[in-house]
Give the backbone structure.
Amino acid sequence: MRAVLILCFLSCFGYLSQGEFIEDTITYGSFPPGFIWAAATASYQVEGAWNVDGRTPSIWDTFVRTPGTIADQSTGDDACLSYYFYEQDVALLKSMGVSHYRFSISWSRVIPNGVGASNPLGIQYYKNLIAALKAAGIKPMVTLYHWDLPQVLEDQGGWQNPNIATWFEAYADLCFEQFGADVEYWITFNEPWCQSYLGYGSGSKAPGIKESGTQDYIATHNQLRSHAKAYRLYELKYKQTQKGKVGITLNISWAEPEDNSTTNAAAAERSLQFAGGWFANPIWVNGDYPQVMIDLIGRKSTAAGLPQSRLPVFTEAEKTELKGSADFFGLNFYSSEIVREQLFDDTLVDYTTDKDAIAYQDKENWYGTASTWLRITPWGIRRMLNWIKDRYNNPDVIITENGMSDRNGYLDDSMRIYFYKYYINNVLKAVQDGVNVIGYTAWSLMDNFEWERGYLERFGMHYVNFTDPAKPRIPKASANYYARLIQKNGFVPEEICDSATVY
């Protein structure tokens, strides 16, 4: 197995003659002029104030109150209290020199009933945040949906209800109208794969439904329909005056074939299509799902005796609306997997078996983090970016999340510096490969509520003391390192050798 892994990664890593692993080499150089440097958060993870000023519960407010769902039994009720301390957040961003701040809007804060009347106090919060950013010379990059669906809409079926596309369009319309004059980049959905599979398939995230192979496909279908409606709305009603750009953010792990066999190469490609192509193919290719998904799920649905495929079907009008419905490709990238073919029983009903492949990580050679799913593979981001270039006609790409977790929150977070050093350098290499990467966003600005892991895993470049009511934010070493990269707009020798050597 070790020999196989060595063969897989020779193009991105060097090896000693004995087969011992050595580091990827650093490439010096600058990112293009005007390159976006950003940091990110999400509403439920940082805002707190969960029942304040008219905000109603989201699916996460419900989920965290379900016994056994959160590792440390915590909630996002307070989190970082950014609803009150947003000016401190802006000060942190300004000190790092970022050009953009990626944050998300809480749907239930601005439209408490999910549809209908808006909430002036909720709208004013985001106007205040945007004004503070503008005063600091920082541009907002706004995500409309980062998993916190109003519970009142989930009670009506949530992402299983086809009417949600109309509900989302109305929500997007309000946001474009109220905030769009100051927003350059809009992201309709953050990681719809997670909302679909983890929310409606495995049930590990809100709303906690375990119906994989059926409801996860429906959830994706309705998120894509919603995305297209929001994009076309902006295009027709706001783009000419506001001149913003609208995209979507997908999370994709790089899939490396276990060996050079054609069967495992095909299995790795299927994994990428089931993870990324599931959403990207309808938008960047032909308005429909990847053919491999249509064929496999259709065949397995027939084998299970179903009258039609478990994969929903777009109307011709929906295909037309979807195709070309993004001005940029948002990529959240964290880790990689090794993939081999595994043929499953065709009668099984499950997203994970539909692709006839299994994936694992190299725990022996890939550095770990506090998150079991996240092992450090900098070479993967370069390969992932080139895959996007080759499959989708080289769209503009913004890395909308990239970062690593630890448990201790140490201010001297040397491993996070290592992570950013090698991942960002591989983004630079992808730019030199010809990939149209126009921006990079570090996850996260500060420690926050890490979903079902609660406060056990910390991704922040700033430490947050969650036991202190004031939620003080303290810069970690990685914040300073990231600031220097931004200042230099890339890698120069003195920056590499200063506090970013191999640990």
